[in-house]
Amino acid sequence: MHKLGHTRSAHRRDYLLQTPDSFIRIPLPCLTKAMAIVHTGSAAGAAFTEFTVELEAGGVLSSAGLQRFVYVLEGELTLGASNEERRMEPGSFAYVPASVTHRFVAESEARAVVIERRARPGDAASQPHDGAPRSRGLR
Mean pLDDT throughout 76-81? Predict the structure, then answer.
């Protein structure tokens, strides 16, 4: 018999194992036409928040005043920041400092992993960095 609230997930002092049966899709203030599955955050003792975002075509992940790392799993996103736009496809990633106003727009249905945290003094430069391979035309 299934007990309400019982999952195969485990949370110990030195690790956290989350299984898909514990995933809950929720809206976040920085999302439009999208849902997030939060994997970890301060409530679990982490100094960052990690979530998977599922965006509809035209969905938006907008600035939240936090440092943000985004890795594209499926679909295509366009990163708009510092008066530039960069197309991102599966396998592409981008780092955006907290001081840079930005938005990721889904060109089609898309999924991405997002890791974000508050900026600290001395953190990385103020310009976004994308990690797309140079052979794909992005730098």
Answer: 96
Q: What's the total number of domains in the chain?
A: 1
CATH (domain of 46): 2.60.120.10
> What average pLDDT does this structure show over 76-104?
95
As a whole number of angstroms, the distance between CA 99 and CA 56 comes to: 27
pLDDT-based confidence at 82, cuts 50/70/90? Answer: confident
Q: For the stretch 67-85, what's the b/e string if a residue is b when 16 or more beta carbons lie within 10 angstroms of its beta carbon?
A: bbbbbbeebbbebbbeeee
Report how far residue 75's alpha carbon sits from residue 53's, in angstroms, rounded to the nearest whole number.
Answer: 12
Check the CA dihedral 112-48-63-31 and report its sign: positive
136 has pLDDT over 50? no
Instruction: Determine, yes or no, domain membership for 133.
Output: no
Residue 21 lies in a domain: no
